[in-house]
Amino acid sequence: MFSRLRSDIQCILDRDPAARSTWEVITCYPGLHAVVLHRPAHWCWTHGLKWLGRFISHVARFLTGIEIHPGAKLGQRVFFDHAMGVVVGETAEIGDGCTIYQGVTLGGTSLYKGAKRHPTLGKDVVVSAGAKVLGGFVVGDGAKIGSNAVVIKPVPPGATAVGIPARIIPSKDGASADASADTPPERAKFSAYGVTLEDDPVSQALKGLITSASSQEHQIALLWQAIEKLSSRPAAGDCVPQDAQRSECFEAAKLNDLVGK
Known about the structure:
Layout: H1 2-15, H2 22-28, H3 30-46, H4 50-64, E1 67-68, E2 73-74, E3 79-80, E4 87-88, E5 93-94, E6 99-100, E7 105-107, E8 120-121, E9 126-127, E10 132-134, E11 138-139, E12 144-145, E13 150-151, E14 160-162, E15 167-169, H5 201-230, H6 234-237, H7 252-259
Parallel strand pairs: 1-4, 2-5, 3-6, 4-7, 5-8, 6-9, 7-10, 8-11, 9-12, 10-13, 12-14
Antiparallel strand pairs: 14-15
């Protein structure tokens, strides 16, 4: 029990730069309190003491602002950062090393009792502020859920889900969203709040179009310059219109700055 508590405290110290000491984490982090209180609630739930499990869960919700159903399964080193307003459903499963921010809902879309209604998060998943993960599917190891995303379908390992409804961005070279004890040091990169500028699919699409348009303009300018050089005789020079674009004026860098690098 104490070794697991030490692991929970250490994961907070590793992921939150605002955490200055073990004592501060123990006394001032509701995410830790919610995880600690969930364990007896889950034990009661799985041993037939349903009401007592729900009551402990209710008390934990009152004290921390984090609602975790006693039937939910939590792995090791789970960190609820800030986490006010988090709701974790009865059949949800949260893997080792996951990080969940405020306003997240791990909810269900079915009313059938006993069915798998809530999502399963793999290891080292980051679920950003305000995200809603709805349904009994799997979010793969190392995946990232962007802020305010609404995820209604499975997310592959290492991928990023952003938008409403969420769009899936595949993993880059198997990169993980988080760093766990099993992650090699060269790949240990924690992505706070789940996403970076490179994870916005709309921005990436716009940058691709800008790059293509800039390349086309460059090629057109080169073609007109080549035609002018070949048109050495006055009669042949008439084939070059006066308004031919011989230089580039497409402001690709400025447009890329507007959509985000």
